[in-house]
Amino acid sequence: MSQSDAPLFGLMDLVRAAFSLPLLSLFLAAVVVAVILIFASRPQLGVRRGQGGAAEVIRSVQARHRRERVVLAITGVLVVLAFAVENVLRGYVLELGELLPWWRFATALFVAALGLGVVAAIEVRGAKPSEVPVVSGARRTWTSFGPRVGLIGGVVALVAIVATSIAAGLAAYADSRGDSAWLEIPIPNEETVDPLRLHFYGWTYGVPVLICAALLAAAAWGVLHANAARPYIRPETVAAERDARRAVARDAVRIATAAMLLGLAGAWRLIAGAGTASGLVVEGKNDGAPYEVIWRHAELAAVAGWAAPVLEVLAFSLLLLVAVRLRAPKVPVGAESDTADVEAVR
Fold this sequence. Notes:
Layout: H1 5-19, H2 22-40, E1 47-49, H3 55-64, H4 66-93, H5 107-126, H6 148-171, E2 173-174, E3 180-185, E4 196-199, H7 203-229, H8 238-274, E5 279-280, E6 291-292, H9 298-323, E7 342-344
Antiparallel strand pairs: 1-7, 2-3, 3-4, 5-6
Helix pairs in contact: 2-9, 4-5, 4-8, 4-9, 5-7, 5-8, 6-7, 6-8, 7-8, 8-9
């Protein structure tokens, strides 16, 4: 290695070490969201105003959906806090000894599922008959108000975390205590040498994640279904209610997707650790030289390790975007009673 290459490798090691900290991903996500909010607050040409009808109609619809909006925002905050607190306590405070933190990757999913369950209950209990019958031409389903790209992304995240948990669980090794949280890498051409055992994302972690992922998927479906099924208030509120229901569905999908991405990123980080092992030293054998040890999926694990921080930044950004919606959206000044969209130029 030339002297000119040394700073490059030092920089790469520094970057790798920095991105090994999930809380750095939270900081980067906060920066990303701040930039998004700055650009979103700038005056734009062709801003849609008067969407949803008259100002009083919009306010009444916002009041009806206020509890769902507040609980969704609080859920986004709680998922971030739960992840950060668990990460700090487990890594720097608690002495777990031989106890494996089986809840490590399932915490965010469980908190998100609990929050979305509360939102679904609010929607079911708050559903009231229409004040004036509203005739709707299309049948509403749980996908009616959900963002198409968001729903696809949520399904992809769900499939990825389920596939990762099952594949890693099948590859894991269970110790004498029954903890399936280890990976055995045999030493090539050395049957007398015990295989290298590494901490791994096995069934000990995967089963809680699969259970919480199922609960989260059911809770998200419950929110989307109840959000679409409840009747409209009056014909003149339909446009405003559609906007409010789209916002609820969007935030619910963001929370569910973000929680699954956090669990997936954590799993990929642990799996990536197995790909870094390259040698094993056994006292009194091989003249003190290390045995060469390479996991057959090391390249794939390395890719997962680099992708994990990206997933975390995306997940935290989605949660923070939901959290900043705690306050009610502003009603456009001069909103018209006509439910048609009016284009206004600033």
